[in-house]
Amino acid sequence: MTPRSVAAVLLVAFVSFLSIGKFFQQISDFFVKRPPVDGVTQFTARYQPVRSLLPDKGVIGYMTDPAAAADEVNATAEFYLAQYALAPIVVVNSPNQRYVVTNFHVMVTTGAMADQGYKLVREFGNGVAVFENQKWGQK
């Protein structure tokens, strides 16, 4: 091998190592900048403690802020996320069930809920609570 071909091989090897080093730097930057937890995981984690309170199967109601419009995109998305988080329990978008899980963004007092016929079973924080419908089964 001539000195010129040895130099060419060494130059190609050097450029290859630089390219591989740049690739690993880009990969390491990606993993550092990646968010630790996505929004769906954060939302469903709010309902994790509720699972231990509920039975393995059945139907429960769902209630969100009184001011939230039923056709609002965020309200609908959060309802679906609550269904996902509490599965296999069937969650219906109605407070007309014996037990109702809430997703409040504004403060709602237990007194205001009691005036509507709901008794607090347990509050979990972050707007999540389980209420019992005192009118359930009454005609």
Structural notes for this entry:
The longest helix has 31 residues, at 3-33. The protein has a 5-stranded mixed beta sheet with strand order 2-1-3-5-4. The protein is of the alpha/beta class. Helix content is 47%, strand content 20%. The relative contact order is 0.14. The chain has helices at 3-33, 39-53, 73-86, 110-115; strands at 59-64, 90-92, 99-103, 118-125, 128-133. The protein is built from 4 helices and 5 strands, in the order H-H-E-H-E-E-H-E-E. A hairpin with a 2-residue loop joins strand 4 (118-125) and strand 5. It folds into 2 domains: 1-34; 39-133, no CATH class.
List its salient traits:
alpha/beta; 139 residues; single chain; 2 domains; five-stranded mixed β-sheet
Order of helices and strands: HHEHEEHEE
Question: Which band does the percent of strand residues land in?
Answer: 15-25%
Helix/strand class: alpha/beta
User: What's the total count of β strands?
Assistant: 5
Count of discrete structural domains = 2
Describe the main β-sheet briefly. Answer: 5 strands, mixed
Helix content: 40-55%
Low-confidence stretches: none
Overall geometry comes to rod-shaped
Instruction: Give the spatial strand order of the biggest sheet.
Output: 2-1-3-5-4
The end-to-end span amounts to: 99 Å
How many helices does DSSP assign? Answer: 4
Overall residue-averaged pLDDT value: 84
Radius of gyration: 27 Å
